């Protein structure tokens, strides 16, 4: 599979929210987003915003740092939001049931490097980083191989 990539600059939290809405409009069961970046780069903010947009009723979307996985019910499927930062082995990841969710639910995985060779091939990777252009500015690099992401990528701001 050919690897594709695109880079964006998000100049404010509002632009990040706008991008999250594009994702919310197009995500379907079986979509997996791998969220990379240092602590404070915007991974959880982005995931929280997308998840809240997908829920039929507003609810709190906490960071899954301590629970490891938060599961939400949308109208189409479950939404799994996981944070693998505190895990040290693939066995620990397997115990979460996350691998089964990849093909049938919408999944968000923070710290996806813990997935090692079990990283879904159909996933879209979003790498967030703090820009040197301002405190609220984020750089976002997206990489993917699966052609299923083309409709979403076409909707991204230039």
Q: In words, what does this structure look like?
A:
With 158 residues, the protein is of the alpha/beta class. 26% of the residues lie in helices and 27% in strands. It contains five helices and seven strands, in the order βαβαββααβββα. It has helices spanning 13-26, 43-54, 90-95, 98-101, 150-154, and strands at residues 4-10, 32-36, 69-73, 78-83, 106-110, 124-130, 138-144. A seven-stranded mixed β-sheet has the order 1-7-6-2-5-4-3. A hairpin with a 4-residue loop joins strand 3 and strand 4 (78-83). Helix 1 packs across helix 2. The longest helix has 14 residues, at 13-26. The chain is globular. It starts with a strand and ends with a helix. The model has no long low-confidence stretch (mean pLDDT 93).
